Amino acid sequence: MMTNPDTFFKRLKRNARENAEWLVELWNNQDRERDKLLRYYRWHFKELVLCVLLAYLLTRVDKVQQFFSAFAIEIKRGHHEFLHFALVFGLNGLVVFWLCYVFWHKPARVRARFIFGDRRREDFEAYYRKPGGAWRVAMVSALPMLLVNVTLSMALLRDYELLGERPSPLSEWLDSNAFYVQIIVAALYLALGSLIRPRYRAVQNIIGTGNRKEIHLTASQYDAMLGSLWKTFIANLLLLPAGILILTILLWFYHTPAFQSFQYITLLFFVLAPPLTVAFFLSSFSECLIIERRKEDQYKEEELPFEQKFEKWYNWLMGTSYVISILIFLLCNSSWITRQEWFSQWMFPIAMLLFIFIAYYQALDLLTYNTTRVRFYLFSLFCIAVLIIWGRSDHYRMKFDSATPHHRSPKRTNLETYYLNWAKDRFLQGEPAEAYLAAAEGGGSRSGAWTCAVLTQLDMASQGAFRRHCFAISGVSGGAVGSAATIALWDHASKLQVDSPLYNPAKRDKYIERIFRRNYISTALAGIFFYDLIQQFPLLNNFYPEHNSRTDRHQDEEDNAVCLSLCDMFGEQTLLREHYLKKTDFLSLYYEQDSVAPRTDLPLFFPNTCRVEDGRRGILSPILIDKSDKGRDRKSPFSTTIVDIVGICDSLSPSLGEATSLSELFPYVNAPVFINKNTGSFMDGGAYENLGLTTLYEVKQSLDVICEHPDSNWIAANLPEKQQEGFRQYLRDMRFKILLIYNIDNHGYEMLAEYKNYSIKLFDPIMAMLQTPFGGHTDYIYHKVKFEMGDSSVIDFPLLETKFDTTRTEKIVMSRWLSELELDTILQRSISRVDAKLGKVNKRWLQKAQ
Q1: Which among 755, 794, 765, 727 has a CA at the least distance from the CA of 436?
Q2: Which value, to the nearest 10 degrees, does the dihedral of the CA atoms of residues 419, 425, 427, 433 take?
């Protein structure tokens, strides 16, 4: 790795003595060492700040930890193929190395002084020429790799209840102190690096320890020095792929019992070896550049011809890095690419997060390296002013992308007419007088997969009876996506008259997996930091002719995932539409064009949203909403305070994908949607109430009135006289049950507040505002419905159970991506939960299943 005249231990002793002497000089401020130290920190300020931010993201954000936990679980289970594992590990390692490289290199001088000013490069080169300067730069540059390796190592040391492991004290301690572990390990790494600082033989033999700039060498001496350093550089370069291969093999065998005995040694090697190898590689390259630059300066003084070698390679690598960044940036900005399934698989969230660091650092470094401070600050203020004063938001407008012409969108009927048609169909078929109303809670892909799994499992257990008797589904955010995916499945089965795939467990699991194991986060990150931001700037938005926001891209991805899943389920030739979610008019699910009777083969779907301007609840309702005073018509389900989005949009009917998307506009993952000046902007429905139960409760109240006092004129016009009284009795006998599909079983615990009293008091008001929709409003309607209807008519389907006897609970992260183990747990738990509650839902179904 390097040539050194001393033994390893002598070098350690020598470096330790120099470090001690420097600390004494620093304490005494000898030769203004404190001023030099401040200059050193200013040199690394950007890198250190970004490393602290990276450490915080890696340890304090559940969504980021989820990716490392998923990878760690796969390592501990050993269920992966070696080539696939090596490819994933190698590619992610390459991205981390790339981040280390951009921390190390300094950009070229831009020859546009009238724009950038005159920021001289020589000021920076002086630091490299100080003894140990190149090594310190390389050490700091390798910090990102250290932080990533520490995060994965901590994930490997944790115990996961999803794997049936009981949390150990070490695991609990790591959960509580992960950020501080990162900082401590980074400090130890820098201290260790100062002890093993390389001392290259060629440099020491020729120039000793003095000031290199004052010594004049012959051409042969320079060539000998560069030749020796070049060999060291090549050795370090070869160590990088060799080290990756060794680490891959170590992690591949990590799950075996033999390696468990050496896991701490293995992880220590994994944490320290890669960043130190990268530091040696970058340091040896820096030494080559320094010596070559000294040779160039001396040749210029002596007016001798000189040809660059290492500098050309340095510039070539730097240019290549910028070209790759631009290409990946264009890749992330193309709507056609981001909607593809392969993009979500290859541009994984951690890789996207690190690339964001890379792209912004390169831009920031290019500016700060070339621009004077005054010009840099003025440029920053100008960009902020442009965003605030002239910023554009046209790309956040809803597109109304359904294939149905807007002026021919089906007309809605009121709840009573629709329900009487629905009940009449079941009555004439001699089916029992029972109806189910389902509320699906929000919570990202976790809620979406759980909602779809529970609904399809109920349908499978009842052999289609649940689908026939499910009258309405009210969904919020992820629960709305899961409901839409289920409705898409049932709609295809109904129109194609093919039910057998619905009752095939393997096909059903694959359908849910392909939709909800997909990575929707990378596109959202690209939107936040790239194309959504750039489209805010005037003129720059002309480079985006489609003017799509990250919400539009999210709709494209979900549409693609649902279409691919439907192909798997029913066969490629049986698709009703190529872009089902985007091109299916929301109202066409329940009304045919120019048809009097509505369709009643699908449950009514109510996506819930929230208007930004006034915080009111918005509903995408397939039934007509009477805006008159509800007190005069108790059969109208909704109060006058709700926002009827379909109604106020007049002839503009959203597609099923748009209707669902309006409910899942979680802050920052998706962007708020602007419809028009009469309608306003909308965000995630969880901002009002996260279970969607308020909407369902109002529907249930109106249905009770309708069943007691049905429209006599409608009954007389639609049923023979001899069946009219039987139908009235059928309505009076109708029994409604509400199914609550939610994430965590904590709504019934009054003592929950005691366990949440951990916040810093300064942030208590913010905590209360955040908990109001997700806790306060949701808990209120939950207890109200439970009290009025009783436990027998309200059936809970929680995914996770709250445990108050321990600080840890089993964890499936609320994210827009699910790991393989998390999704497997959701699918298996949907079977056990439905089996346990099936008798409460319907005893006949339980007897049939048994």
Answers
A1: 794
A2: -50
Task: State both tokens at 208.
Answer: 């000793």
- pLDDT at residue 127 in the model: 65
**Distance, CA of 451 to CA of 486 (rounded, Å):** 8
Q: Give pLDDT tens digits for 45-90.
A: 888 888 999 999 999 888 888 888 888 888 888 877 788 788 888 8
Q: Which two tokens stand for residue 228?
A: 């020796």
pLDDT single digits (tens) 481-494: 999 999 999 999 98
Q: What is the pLDDT of residues 155-173, one digit of tens each?
A: 988 887 777 777 788 888 8
- Asked whether the beta carbons of 230 and 288 are under 8 A apart, the reply is yes
Quick one: which of 277, 219, 174, 61 has its CA closest to 813? 61
Rounded Cα distance between 468 and 435, Å, is 9
Instruction: Report d(CA 637, CA 796) in Å as an integer.
Output: 23
CA dist., res. 772 & res. 780, Å (int): 10
Distance (Å, rounded) from C-alpha 661 to C-alpha 670? Answer: 9
Q: Which of 656, 617, 594, 604 is nearest to 417 (CA)?
A: 604
Q: How confident is the model at residue 113 (pLDDT cuts 50, 70, 90)?
A: low
Asked if residues 619 and 644 have their Cβ atoms less than 8 Å apart, the reply is yes
Start-to-end CA distance of the chain, whole Å, equals 69
CA dihedral 646, 651, 656, 660 (to 10 degrees): -30
**For 670, which DSSP code?**
B
- DSSP readout, 307-366? --SHHHHHHHHHHHHHHHHHHHHHHHH-HHHHTSHHHHHHS-HHHHHHHHHHHHHHHHHH
Predicted pLDDT at 474: 96
Nearest to 395 by CA among 676, 681, 674, 663: 674
Helix (H) or strand (E) holding 508: helix 505-516
Query: How many other β-carbons are positioned within 10 Å of the β-carbon of residue 699?
Result: 24
Burial of residue 637 (CB within 10 Å: 0-12, 13-18, 19+) is buried
Helix axes 8-28, 33-43, angle to 10 degrees: 110
Beta strands in 470-599 (DSSP E): 470-476
Cα–Cα distance for residue pair 727/848, rounded to 1 Å: 27
Cα–Cα distance for residue pair 481/666, rounded to 1 Å: 12
How many CB atoms sit inside 10 A of residue 177's CB? 14
736 three-class SS: strand
Q: Which residues contact 349 (CB under 8 A, 6 or more apart)?
A: 63, 64, 67, 519, 521, 522, 525, 817
Tell me how far apart the alpha carbons of residues 356 and 383 are, in angstroms, rounded to a whole number.
19
What are the two backbone dihedrals, phi and then psi, of residue 384, each rounded to the nearest 5 degrees? -65, -40
Helix-then-strand count for the chain, H and E? 38, 9
Handedness of CA 27, 33, 38, 44 (dihedral sign): negative
Three-state secondary-structure class, residue 641: coil
The pair of three-digit structure tokens given for residue 771, joined into one six-digit string:
């908990």
Torsion of CA 400, 403, 408, 409, to 10 degrees: -60
Tell me the two tokens of residue 540: 């720059």
Residue carrying the six token digits 């690190």: 354
